[in-house]
Amino acid sequence: MKEKLRTMLKKGKVLAAAALIAASSAVCSVAASAEDVSAPAVSGNMESMMTDAGEQISGQFNSLVSTAIPVIIGIMGSGLVIFGIFALIKLAKKIFGKVAG
Questions:
Q1: Which residues, other chains included, contact 37 with Cβ-Cβ below 8 Å and sequence gap of 6+?
Q2: Each residue of 13-33: pLDDT tens digit?
Q3: Counting Cβ atoms within 10 Å, is residue 74 exposed (0-12), middle (13-18) or buried (19+)?
Q4: How far is CA 21 from the centre of its chain?
């Protein structure tokens, strides 16, 4: 029973560490790609208002895409790290099972 508790505790530490790595990499990606965007002044007539709105939408879309891509890459990297940790644990169990058996 004591050995089972120890094994569960070790797995919990690995899962907590992997979750912390994933969360920190996502936060770092968002913080690194955040920009200060200021809104341009809107002039009086409708044509210039529509032009300004189109430019703002285009700028915000570009900002969204340039912010989302590093976040997605960070999440994928964290997922790969978590997958690697689980693969190593599985391989270690297999090797130690053969050695002990």
A1: 59, 60, 63
A2: 767 777 777 777 777 666 666
A3: buried
A4: 9
